[in-house]
Design a protein that fits this description.
The complex is a heterodimer of chains A (771) and B (155). By secondary structure, chain A is α+β, with helices and mostly antiparallel strands. Chain A is 28% helix and 21% strand. The termini of chain A are far apart. Classes of the chains: A alpha+beta (771), B alpha+beta (155).
Chain lengths: 771, 155
Amino acid sequence: MTVSRRTFLKTSLTASGALIVAFSGDSLVAPSSLAQGPFDTHRSHIDPSKLDSWIAVSADGTVTAYTGKCDFGQGMFTAQTQLVAEELCLSIARVKLIQCDTSVCPDQGTTSGSQSSPTNFNLRNLAQAAATARVALIAMAAKKWNEPADQLKVSEGVITSGSRQITYGELIGGQRFELPLNPDAKRRSPDQWTVLGKAVPSLDRVALVTGHFEFVHNVRVPGMLHGRVVRPPDVGAKVARVDESSVKQIPGFVKVVVRRDFVGVVAEKPWHAVQAARKLKVLWTPGIGLPTEAQYYQTVRAQPSEDDLLVDSRDVAQHLASAVTALKATYFHPYQMHGSIGSSCAVADVRPDAVTVWSATQSAYPTRSIVSKLLNVPLENVRVVYVRGSGCYGLNGADTVSFDAALLSQAVGRPVRVQLSRQDEMAWENYGAACVIEQQAALDEQGAIIAWECESWDASRGGRPGYEKPGNVVTGTLAGFDPDLIQAAAAKEPHGELHNRSNVVPSYLAGCVHGKCGGAGTIRSERVVMHSVNSPFYTGPLRSPLRLQNTFAHECFMDEICARVKADPVEFRLKHLRNERVIGAVKAAANAAGWMPRPGPNANNSGEKPAGGRGIACVAYEGDNGYAALVAEVSVDLNTGRVQLRKFTVAIDAGPISNPDGLRNQTEGGILQGASRALVERVTWDDRRITSVDWETYPSLYLDTDVPEINVVFVERKDVPATGAGETAITLVAAALGNAIFDATGARLREVPFTPERIKAALPVGAGRSA
Amino acid sequence: MSAVTLKVNGQVHNLETDPSTPLLFVLSDDLGFRGPKFGCGLAQCGACTVILRGKAVRSCVLPVGSVGEHEVTTLEGIGTPEKPHPIQQCFIEEGAVQCGFCLSGVILTAKAALDQKPQASDDELRQTLGGVLCRCFAHLRMWRAIRKYREMKKS
């Protein structure tokens, strides 16, 4: 994109025809005053209740659709294009999708939380807009011909009745619909689908594979300079003095920019900026000092906490005390990184009356709001244009680098491109939270679970900036804004009904609040409490945030119970589940994997080397946003403690599937990313700073991994709403692998990652020591 | 600053630049190539890979001044959207891509290895791909595509 803001707007004008009128004419409404949640659709200068905010038909009959949900490699561009094509009875080639440009797209908050399908593929927003447009176009033709609408046929944007025909372009091309979204406009049902539900190859594939795709890293604007940031050496360090003369001799050097503790350099060329950032002399105050990593989980448990009581039947302690058998185990999950392969990048052009930021953020409108606060410029002067970055998997450095670019551009009065160094990215990103999760269960004489208690601690700091909080990521804090911090507070009594958004409530609990039982299971003696504490490091959503950590603990503990009572892990799970969709997923996965019932682990660890094992885990993602079960098969070398992945079988129920190939791709990738997180990934630090700052100090599974077979089974239901699906499979991997390793070796791993050292240390006495 | 002549994908470019500048910066910033990308700047991930003298090399740590007369081939140099290279075609057919940022590393490393030794075993390929990262973990499909290309070379 080598265009100025003005030419880009002109292009949008041509492309979007009618819509641009709405954009320039409507008054501005502060999005935050109408915000209903981070993923939902909000009113902005573009009114999402109007059809023209979503759909425009050009004279040649092609359709332009505007969405606030963007694609970062998960396939949302293709799926949304299919959706619009399906509802308007067009082939995908005749649909042009514009995603997440705040000048023309509705505010749909943040593309995250597995909420794009629920938001845009059910009975609201983009899907409803496309259906509204089809119904309206047919009604126009019916009126013109004075015929009943239900007698008309539509195909490829042409409406026909007998020998008469008229195109969408002839009906409305270049004009506005001037209609509200019609809640009675019926969606095309999955049985009628010809485009949606098909394995359409992702539309970006050819450009990506041949190196022609434009990433945000490729955006070039005339007159653009290059910036780099200089982050503090230690956590909590502040600027004491900056010596600009230390870099003045570097060719192409333009300026050192300091705003409180934010420091950056700007130069003519990126290589000059890199050198200036390396050579700039900054005197920093000492940092705050960091808690010892080896004892960090104890530190977390000892902090003052903000507590949330999700369910409490008030009889759990009594059951635990009097039970025939009681079990207790504590699980630990480290901070992990998004670790995007591309260091984050953004371009900003800050002019006196107009600010444009080209950003890979998942949150175009919230980023617009934060940029306006950071730069102290009116909101309506800021435009954020989404341009894809490398896969983010949540809140990576895309937001913070957008703020870096905006601050630097404002300081030099020219467009600035910033690309973070690998270390800037890894030392300061918003990590997935570290967790401690303690489980207790009481069993009756028959070995059934009668009571379950789960108490968890998670350490967090900041998070998504949203519309209001620049300080939730590092750039904002350095520039003088506070992050969201935990305020210690005791839990209130559970109220309303159960929302299991973080999967902190195990699937086997009934989840009863005031007699209403929203859990997926049968256990009615239940207590679940969450403690949130402050973290010295920034945290934020990382693919399956907290859901993965909690599910690891629940599903491994369930496996421990099975082993104790010598019950088959599949049968015992089914006995304690009542949600039919989780049950369906468990049965489908077990069936596809050829599960052999077994009383407890095989733990065939005496002679056979390597030892083979299988484990299962299941989840109702966020309680009601996708259902899945995973069977993992591994072999473990008892001498080295090395795990070899043999096979994964996953069954997934996400309602009607928009694109089976896209879902399969997401599920396969999610499982291997989950394996990398379970086996090798962990953020490390010393007494001053983060020490995992590159791919040698923060390991990942590389392409040399002996990739196992992955069998993805769809349990497709077409009579229910679409759920999310991008985070469902990864949620199960650490649990299923932990259970498989236990089955193979008898070693119960309660701390991620499952390193060879930990596996060897957990082996039962006598195992693997004979060779 | 000095005069540097660089041959990329069959075209000769004359530039005024600091010869210590990494080749990647020249390719992506001075010449506007989109194939090679900045991932780590440390030769640890492969996103910046180009082919030089038949080998896959990391352009993020290679000074442009050291390239000399040898031709540099980028991901866009081996095929086009209209006529992709056979290995690119294999990746397209297998859908072996998610975000796509890593593809220079994956495709060019596998291509260089198989062009050098068309019947390289899985183990040999694994050794070559040991330093190549894909954080979307599209490994399954990538391996399918690479093996498909190996099969094509056989026939």
